[in-house]
Amino acid sequence: MLLRRKNMAANPEDESGHDSRPWVYFMVDCFMLITEFFVLTFQFKTEEVILPHKLPGCTGIPSQCMTESLTVHVQHVNDVPVYQVLREPYDQTRLADCFARAVSQKKNVIVRVSYDKAVPWSDVMNVFNECSRARIQQVGLVPTHDSSESTH
């Protein structure tokens, strides 16, 4: 057995090289544990684009307690954007008047925007721009629950 060790020591290519460096095993173990920790604790952060269901509370002043929620659905009919508010079709001018009227009544206005798949994004952004012009701050997108997409 002693001869065998002498022969291995005489030929360094046959030797693994870790006998003289035991700290290599320790470093590999540490690297694997740290990698496993990051893999197991990694999470994706999702952004919520839906307006919160909890509305701000009333301050006690009657004019500030009134909240009006407007749902705007954007469609594209004959290459013209159509904005449906309360099941009525509006063009962009009437939509701006509707927002201005709601704000002038001293109401807290919340606008929820949905749109069809074929609608250009610029038509959807027109709703956000009109809300900005009318100084409506609570605006958000809501998912469209289309019955044709659901699987039964």
Would you write up a description of this structure?
The chain is of the alpha/beta class. Helix content is 38%, strand content 21%. The chain has five helices and five strands; from the N terminus they run H-H-H-E-E-E-H-E-H-E. Strands 3-2-1-4-5 form a five-stranded mixed β-sheet, covered by helices on one side. The radius of gyration is 33 Å and the shape is elongated.
List keywords for this structure.
152 residues; alpha/beta; 5 strands
Briefly say what this structure is.
With 152 residues, this protein is an alpha/beta fold. Helix content is 38%, strand content 21%. It contains five helices and five strands.
Compute the number of strand runs: 5
Q: What pattern of helices and strands is seen along the backbone?
A: HHHEEEHEHE
Main beta sheet: strand number and arrangement? Answer: 5 strands, mixed
Helix proportion range: 25-40%
Q: What is the strand and helix layout of this fold?
A:
Layout: H1 2-10, H2 23-41, H3 62-65, E1 67-77, E2 80-85, E3 88-90, H4 92-104, E4 108-115, H5 121-133, E5 138-141
Parallel strand pairs: 1-4, 4-5
Antiparallel strand pairs: 1-2, 2-3
Helix pairs in contact: 4-5
